[in-house]
Amino acid sequence: MTIPDTHHKSCARLCVLLALLLFSLSPASIRANETADSTSNNFVVAPYLQLGDRPSLTDPESLTLLWQTIDSKDNWSVQVKDDGARRWKSQAAPKVQSVELPGNGPRCFFTGQLTGLAPGKPFDYRLLRNDAPVFEAHAQARKAASQPYRFVVVGDCGTNSAPQRQVANQIYSAKPDFVMVPGDIVYNNGRLSEYMHRYFPIYNSEQATPDKGAPLIRSTVFVAAAGNHDIDVMGRVVARDLDLFPDGLGYFYLWSQPLNGPPLVSGQANTPKLIGLESHQSRFLKLAGPRYPRMANFSFDYGNAHIVVLDANQYMDWLDPKLRTWLEDDLASANNAKWRFVCFHQPGFNSDLGHFIEQRMRLLSDIFERQKVDVVFNGHTHNYQRSYPLHFVPAKRERAKPGEQINAVPGTWTLDRAFDGVTNTHPDGVLYIVSGAGGAGLTGTYQAGNQSTWQEFTFKFIAPPHSFTTCDVNDKTLIVRQLSADGDELDRFTITK
Ligand SMILES: [Fe+2]
User: Fold this and answer.
1) Residues, beta carbon < 5 Å, ion ligand 1
2) How confident is the model over 464-483, as pLDDT tens digits?
């Protein structure tokens, strides 16, 4: 059929555009976007892998699988089979918690376990609803100490921006064994409703395309440190205010990570009190279980590395002897690991003037140096920065008085300027990487090309473009690369032992 006159053609186009606009603003379309994949009839959040409370390598290995549905009347089961095998092996019945979080409607939070996995070996898993398979994915067990591995570091990501989706797709192309997020997982306040728009649809997209994201988290384990936007403050807004954000603190119920950090008690040292009605608090506590507040600090092994994830938010007193002893002992006990990595949100060594003053994590540099930490990965500033390998001695080590906050930590650094990561691959000191260009609007862009604004310890400062870090570990060699959202290599260095 032809439309004879151009006026009618323009009207028709306008009507279509209006209809699309109205649909895009309707609650129905928001729900459709939240679950914009072929699994939407079965899941409100499609299955995604987690490490679970498994700090150490084991043989066989296990992983945790989380998913969410709207109603609880169905019978769900999980099966696993080795790559190439024919027989599916039934897993233990998943656990379920039914909770209605305001703004999200009724939810059933499922937790299943994938067990009997050969270290580093690929496998398939599937979910059955009332005995009918409804979801299947391919994944890989955590690697053993003898196996080479690749991990990605990307922070400050969950905004549902075009660069976040491009970066997600590029990470998918890089085929990492696991992904580590150094905080600010979702903006602005770490809420489930924000994960629904800014995390799950992008990292668990049905298709891998630069404009959508990629089916990453169903097949690749993500671990995360908690940033200020996840569990602390953004200006005067407090993420722990469960009256303001009844679905807040998603970090503690949407992630399942090791619970081997220092024991903490809400309202006591290093954990501010929850805010909100008793009913809001008890609903959150029931959902989070033992994960709150302990899961904000933990460590785990992957391949031949020991990795520590820390809470660097402003309420943490990392001069507290109990915390320091835990960290020192944890790193010291990993004496079999060839590599030691640490991940947290707010960098101690950073040249971005936007967050330059938040230097309190420098107070851990003595432990990192004593315990031979190789690389510290941070976010918070939305760019890429690489330091020289360095040693640092603070001018003083005084704990903050109650109600005070430590910001500036002056001191003396010694830089290994001879290390270039190409011909000299033996750093003297700890390398500090900021990889916070995963999706949020970039910061410090005017500084990147203006070296006079950098601190003496900064070796590289890149923004734009949006980017992420890949780390390839093969026995005693580590190759670190910074890749752009288009896959271009922005930086590269090698460390050898
Ligand atoms: Fe941040």
Assistant:
1) 184, 227-228, 380
2) 999 999 999 999 999 999 99
